[in-house]
Write a structure and sequence with these properties.
The chain has 3 domains: 10-121, no CATH class; 189-347, Tetratricopeptide repeat domain (Serine Threonine Protein Phosphatase 5, Tetratricopeptide repeat, Alpha Horseshoe), CATH 1.25.40; 350-442. A hairpin with a 6-residue loop joins strand 1 (106-110) and strand 2 (117-121). Helix 12 packs parallel to helix 14 (312-324), helix 14 packs parallel to helix 16 (349-360) and helix 21 (417-424) packs antiparallel against helix 22 (429-441). With 442 residues, it is an all-alpha fold. A two-stranded antiparallel ribbon has the order 1-2. It is globular. It has helices at residues 18-29, 32-35, 38-52, 61-67, 77-99, 143-164, 177-188, 190-203, 212-228, 233-249, 253-273, 278-290, 294-307, 312-324, 328-335, 349-360, 363-371, 373-376, 382-394, 398-411, 417-424, 429-441, and strands at residues 106-110, 117-121.
Length: 442
């Protein structure tokens, strides 16, 4: 493997799996160099996760400014900030690999001139040959492997001939539930399939919850899904969850009432179309929580869990509903890391777990959850820093608490911390007071 300051070439680099890349990411962001800078943890995590998802061409300064730093989508100052932060990121990466790396596993590069990450990987050969080969010598597999391989190929060929007697074009034997569902929708209507795909993409944008610009983009996608197929409940469920979220974020009382009214209409439409749809029930619960009807909200939330006990998006909706409805035990139940989760998108379970532990008074668990969020690919936003600050303050770590509050206010200067603390925890006076006291103290 090359030294830490040598850039590998394409000829000596393998293609690591997403799991190996994420392991490398976790090692980096949990190091001392990065623990002191949550912003750079977020930066690196965002670009690595985008690359893993196959979206490297979309990794641009403007996207990072919006997604990581919460800047305006049409602003230019955010891109200048990203350039400065990228230089810091490259420096810290270099320091980490110079001082802490043992030369094994994946190495992450962010080359100058762009923000797309690059991964080097030099796996050890599974069957190393003892002694170096002589010049011109071909090092091949042992002879017995060759005969075994030929035998396997012969068996495969015979089996293929036998199977083809019954079908000239056989269908695959296995198919995932999602593939089967999409195929069924496509058979019914291509417009319905397109609407379902669009809604599925938009549901993955639910976190960070407090990013109003991101929520509005998702709302447009859900509304387009409704236009494509007004009979599909997904577009209405998604619109309901976003409109309720925007209502909670709005500091204009009249606008908030208008938004929550629209959210209620959308959730009712979704349930009319499919009363047993888990997403529709979870969205209804979230709408009721924002409307400050906690008992009814929890009824729909629990029903949605029964309908889809492992749907990651449904579990996230239930989790934030439980937080606003002051049911931290339920929030902890659905966000527990041991619970199976299915589906696509950027799940917020780790963050929901952290908030549930804050409400339950388990402050070290709060710190562990949010400090590990970047490495796990979980969304990171201003409340992540705020909740860590509160936990540190409750544990008597004043210096750490002050640093986190300063970081939050520097990165997200316009975030309405006090307002949202009152909105989210108005049913939980103890947590509300702890947050407001921390903000006042620092």
């Amino acid at each position: 493997m090359n030294k830490a300051n040598d850039l590998p070439t394409d000829q000596d680099v393998g293609q690591p799996s997403p799991d190996l890349v994420r392991e490398a990411l976790e090692r980096v962001v949990s190091s001392g160099e990065f623990q002191a800078s949550p912003r750079l943890q977020q930066f690196l995590t965002y670009i690595v996760e985008e690359a893993i998802a196959g979206r490297s061409p979309q990794i641009r300064g403007k996207a990072i400014a919006v997604e990581v730093y919460g800047r305006r989508i049409d602003g230019t100052g955010g891109q200048n900030l990203v350039r400065v932060e990228a230089r810091r990121l490259r420096r810290l990466l270099h320091e980490f690999y110079e001082e802490k790396w043992d030369g094994e596993g994946v190495r992450i590069f962010v080359d100058p001139g762009g923000y797309k990450p690059r991964f080097s990987y030099d796996p050890l050969p599974e069957n190393p040959v003892t002694g170096p080969p002589q010049q011109g010598q071909f090092v091949g597999p042992p002879r017995q492997w060759i005969f075994t391989g030929l035998g396997v190929l012969a068996i495969i060929a015979i089996a293929g001939l036998w199977l083809n007697q019954d079908s000239a074009d056989p269908e695959p034997i296995t198919r995932t539930a999602v593939q089967a569902e999409r195929a069924a929708l496509g058979e019914q209507s291509l417009a319905r399939l397109q609407a379902a795909n669009l809604a599925d993409q938009a549901r993955g944008m639910f976190f960070p919850v407090f990013d109003a610009k991101r929520q509005k983009i998702a709302l447009g996608m859900f509304q387009h899904a409704i236009e494509l197929d007004p009979a599909l409940p997904d577009g209405y469920s998604g619109s309901a969850q976003v409109l309720a979220t925007l209502a909670m974020l709005s500091r204009d009382e009249a606008q908030g009432k208008k938004l929550i009214g629209q959210a209620s209409e959308m959730s009712e439409q979704a349930l009319d179309l499919s009363p047993t749809d888990a997403w529709a029930n979870a969205a209804k619960g979230w709408v009721l929580a924002v409307r400050d009807e906690p008992d009814e909200a929890l009824k729909y939330a629990r029903m949605s869990i029964t309908l889809a006990p492992s749907d990651g998006h449904v579990l996230d909706l239930v989790g934030i509903t439980a937080i606003v409805a002051n049911a931290p035990d339920l929030a902890a139940e659905v966000s527990n890391s041991q619970r199976p989760r299915t589906g696509s998108g950027r799940f917020g379970s780790r963050n929901i777990w952290g908030v549930s532990q804050l409400m339950l008074g388990n402050y070290q668990d709060v710190i562990d959850a949010f400090q590990g969020a970047p490495a796990a690919g979980a969304p990171v936003s201003s409340p992540s820093l705020l909740f860590q600050a509160v936990a540190q303050d409750q544990l008597g770590n004043s210096e750490a608490a002050e640093q986190l509050v300063d970081e939050m206010r520097m990165t997200w200067p316009d975030f309405p911390s006090e307002y949202l603390a009152n909105r989210i925890f108005h049913n939980d006076g103890k947590t509300q007071k702890a947050i407001l006291d921390t903000l006042t103290r620092y």
